[in-house]
């Protein structure tokens, strides 16, 4: 399948997705000559004309804008959105976005390959908050089973 990553998708995501999905064509709007700055209404028409089957975006408001909804529907392209929680910026936000897309995209592509018509997909976000992403244990206070007694702190 041929996937287009919208301009609002971080460019490093394209490199990682290409590594994971070697049997698919992955293009980022910023890497295509003359595509940067293309408005969403025109982007879907242009992507369909260029042979893309899927647009990946983190613009979750597209489906609330009538002209963009019409352009998406008319294009016939599958649309995959993921939410990037902007309060978690920088490396944490990018990591969560990449994790969300990389975990969900293979399953999504399998389903889209079977689909007989256009689909709109929302990937469930990976929670980047510290309390939900990691657990830290002080082995001096809560030693794991078989932890040696008197080991260094």
Automatic annotation (TrEMBL):
Annotated InterPro entries: VapC45_PIN-like
UniProt domain VapC45 PIN like: residue ranges: 1-78
Pfam families reported in the protein's UniProt record: PIN_10
Highest taxon of source: Bacteria
Full protein name: VapC45 PIN like domain-containing protein
Protein source organism: Wenjunlia vitaminophila
């Amino acid at each position: 399948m041929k996937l287009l990553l919208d301009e609002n998708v971080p460019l490093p995501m394209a490199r990682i997705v290409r590594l994971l999905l070697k049997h698919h064509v992955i293009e980022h709007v910023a890497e295509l000559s003359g595509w940067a700055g293309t408005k969403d209404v025109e982007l879907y028409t242009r992507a369909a004309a260029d042979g893309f089957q899927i647009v990946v975006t983190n613009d979750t408001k597209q489906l609330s804008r009538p002209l963009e909804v019409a352009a998406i529907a008319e294009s016939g392209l599958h649309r995959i959105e993921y939410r990037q929680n902007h309060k978690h910026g920088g490396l944490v936000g990018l990591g969560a976005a990449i994790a969300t897309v990389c975990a969900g995209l293979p399953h999504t592509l399998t389903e889209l390959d079977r689909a007989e018509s256009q689909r709109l997909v929302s990937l469930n976000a990976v929670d980047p908050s510290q309390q939900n992403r990691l657990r830290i244990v002080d082995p001096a206070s809560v030693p794991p089973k078989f932890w040696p007694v008197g080991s260094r702190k």
